[in-house]
Amino acid sequence: MKTSIYLLSLTARRCTRTGDGQKVLPGLFDEVVLNGQAYDASPAARSGFSLDLTEKRLVQMEDKAPVWMTELEKIEAKANGIRFFDISSNWRSTGTYPTPTSYTLVTSVIKSLSTERPRTLLEKFSSFRTRRTPKIYPPLEGQESQKWLLSQIQRITVETASPELQELITIYEFPHPWGQHTIIARINGSSPVEDGIVVVGAHQDSTNMWPFLPAPGADDDGSGTVTILESYRALLAAGFTPKRSVEFHWYSAEEGGLLGSQAVAKSYETEGIQVYAMSQFDMTAWVKAGTQEEIGVITDYVDPLLTTFNKELIDAYLSVPYVETKCGYACSDHRIDISPEFSFDHMLEFSKLAVAFVIELAGWETA
């Protein structure tokens, strides 16, 4: 019985010839059939070669986001005339991520999540005529909205966290020359060795296509802003003390070209601050009318291993499934108001995800 592998498309098939039929097999093969031409690929023919055809490589094709494919899929792509760069050696991974195991701890926190507090906060946050970035897009409402958001984060921390937990928390403005500052709330971890922080983020600014028009930004990204704030509150209320340090970021000037987050990332790189994992929450309220409610998981320009981990969290802790989607390079959107398609229950699912993300990756010093 001869086992063959057919290279006909970007999905390779290992087959056993049994009469006129073919059976897909996961194992080794004796020949390669490329465009109808058979080649000897028996163990003797492959002697001296140590290439693992199942090894995953990060590949960049023209005008496309990097994708993971096996060495076998690379060979097949080449056979089909597809050009690419193997950029695996340039990809900096933060390492592997665990399988979700903290079910009891995570579910104890997500039970305390609410839709009422985010609703109240968002009503005020979207009442600013605009949250555009001052000095980039005058007037100064964007600075006023940032100061209000900072005051709410400080208030929630004082009202919710125990005195002992407050000793571990630092809340500060990351300054920007345009006047609207990024806000960072850090919960220091108990680990004596800083092996990378866990970051949950959203952007606080808003925009309209024309700078002089109103931009209340209820969904983009008022929804993400209050979604992660509710997760932060629930963690504090539960007395969460992480092993690995955790930071919540509310970025300035995303709509101006990801300016705030770029500045933070550049500063962290300069200071040698390692980020173990980061998850961004943008537009968490919208459910298109007539469609199934789903959690959109971005698959382009992201860490594939961390994306897989997020999918596992959704399967383990959320009430709705995920769907893969793409955002595009430096993507953004401009939905600006609360509509019938705006769902606080949908936002709640994202708050669950943020809680699970933090607990599973940062750990909990429960003793």
Brief rundown of the structure:
This protein has 367 residues and is an alpha/beta fold. The chain has nine helices and 15 strands. Helix 2 packs antiparallel against helix 9, helix 3 (116-125) crosses helix 6 (218-237) and helix 4 (141-160) runs parallel beside helix 6 (218-237).
User: How is the main sheet built?
Assistant: 5 strands, mixed
- What is the average per-residue confidence, as pLDDT, rounded to a whole number? 83
The helix tally amounts to 9
Number of strands: 15
Question: What is the distance, rounded to the nearest whole angstrom, between the alpha carbons of the first and last residues?
Answer: 60 Å
Secondary-structure element series: EEEEEEEHEHHHHEEEHEHEEHEH
Shape: globular
Give Rg in angstroms: 24 Å
Give a structural overview.
This protein has 367 residues and is α/β, with parallel strands linked by helices. It has 9 helices and 15 strands. The strands form 4 sheets. The protein has a 5-stranded mixed β-sheet with strand order 3-2-1-4-5, with no helix packed on it. Strands 9-10-12-11-13 form a 5-stranded mixed β-sheet, with helices on both faces. It is globular and about 70 Å long. Mean pLDDT is 83; it is low at 4-27 and 332-338.
